[in-house]
Amino acid sequence: MQSTDTTKYIIHSKINADGVIERPDIVGAIFGQTEGLLGSDLDLRDLQKTGRIGRIEVVVSTKGGKTKGNIHIPSSLDRIETSILAASLETIDRVGPCSANIEVSNIEDVRATKRKHIVERAKFILTGMFDANLPESQEIADEVRQSVRVEEMQFFGKNKNIPCGPNVIDSDAIVVVEGRADVLNLLRYGIKNAICVGGTNVPPEVAELTRKKTVTAFTEPKHPALQVRKRVAVSPGFQNVRKGSNLIVPGIPLPK
Fold first, then answer.
1. Could you give all domains of the chain from N- to C-terminal order, each with its CATH number?
2. Main-chain dihedrals φ then ψ at residue 50, nearest 5 degrees
3. pLDDT tens digits, residue range 100-129?
4. Are 229 and 217 in contact (CB under 8 A)?
5. CB-side exposure of 16: number of CA atoms within 13 Å?
């Protein structure tokens, strides 16, 4: 219906005629009976040639010798000129040999329709296409830090299944902890020479490693499931163990 990208309004009107008429009859009556009525500035033929008025759309139906229909005219004129043009349609009283009546039913603001679509679409995009749980800056930093910690973690032993920090092999001293999460927490604070025992028995590889290094064991002596200190004390190879008082576990930060 809209013939140009600059359409601002669409004039919607209804036509009733006492007789059988066709679309060309109605379009001809619109051009013919408004010609010269509004002056040269609002002549429909000139306006259509310059693209300020779009193609006139007419939909009609005939029943019982009478014709009813709808007329739609796109306009890129301003509000005042569009209103004058719409009012001029209601002066048409004949179409061909038949008496007729045209009544403007609505003037649609195309831009308002577009704005409404933009608002509705924007609401959908905002609620449906953005992550509703945007992380805070601290959460972003923690996520990056966690990623770095995971990348720094290495694995020790014949089967490469014992989590440890990257400096365990080269360091003169190591820190023995309970599990993988403890190694990660120590990495978070820059301690890269930790290794975990990760079970009820100290792995032989860890015991052998301690023969040449100074060992600090972080334990929780009151927790029956985490008796690392006792296991370390009786394990072969742990000749030089300095017993710590705290086991670093998830959710419990390393004391500063």
1. 9-109 (3.30.70.260), 137-243 (no CATH)
2. -90, 0
3. 999 999 999 998 888 889 999 998 888 777
4. yes
5. 5
